[in-house]
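Look over what follows to help learners.
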Amino acid sequence: MNPDGSVDYDSFETLLRKQEEAGNGVLVLGSTGEGLNLNEEEKRGIVQFTNGLDLDVPMMVGIGGFGLSAQVDFIHWLNEVEPDALLLVTPLYAKPGAEGQFEWFSELMAETELPCMLYNVPSRTGVKMHPSVPARLSQEFDNLMGVKEASGSVEEFKAFRQEAPDVKFYSGDDGMTPAFTKEGGVGLVSVAANAWPKATHKYVDLCRAGETEGLFPLWKNATDALFKAPNPVPVKTLLHKKGWIANDTVRLPLSLSDISKEVEENLQKFDKDISDWLAKQ
C-alpha cells in the first residue's frame, strides 16, 4: 500500500517477481492478508495487473467473504481473465454446518471450470470445514484441485486425508508443514514465502523429501514470529525493512501499532539466520 492506502503496484510487482524467481506460484487477494479489505475495482485491478505481467509461475486468486451473489459475479469475471486457479474459503462468520458448506462450495464451483482449491481456516472463519465436504465435492466436480488445510491440527489433517485420500492437501500453516507432509500433504500455501521465497521453497522440498533434520528450531521460531501480531502486519514490517516494499502501510482494522519493537528486532534476526541457512544448502 502507498501511504494514502492505495495499492502500490511497483512494490507489488517486486514481490511477484521475487516469487517468480524462486519458482513459487503466487496467490493474490489472499483472504488472511488484506484481500477482503479491497473494493471490487481494486480487486479487479490487482488481478489484471498480475495477469498482465505474464509470470512464469501459476497465479491463484482468492475468493472470500459472505455474499454469495458477489462471489459468483467475481468468479464470472475471473472466467474471462482465466487465472490458473481459485481459492475458495469456508464462509465467514455464519458458521455453516457440513451441508451448508457443501452447498456453498457447490454453488461456487458450478460457476467455473477453473481449478478450485478449498481453504479450511477455522481460526479466521469461526467454523471448521467438515472432513466430508472435500470428499463429497471431489465426487461431484472435476475442478477440485485440492485443499489448503490450516486447522493447526495433525489429527484433523489426518481426518481429511482419511475421508478423501485422492484429494491433494496443502499445508496452510508454515509451521505445520513438516507434520502435514509426513501425513501425505503435497505442498504449502505460505505466509513466510513473502519474506523468504527461496528459503521457503527449499524448506518445502526438504519436508516433502522427509529431510527435516536441521530445520528446527529456526523455522518454527521464525514462522511463529510472523504471527506475533495480526497477519500481515509482521511480514509487511519485515518486507519494508528489507527494502522490498516502499511502505509498511496497512488498512484498518489492522494497525502497525500492534507490533512491538522486540518483534521487529526478532524478525530481522530471523531474516539473517534464514539467509545464512539457505546459503549453506
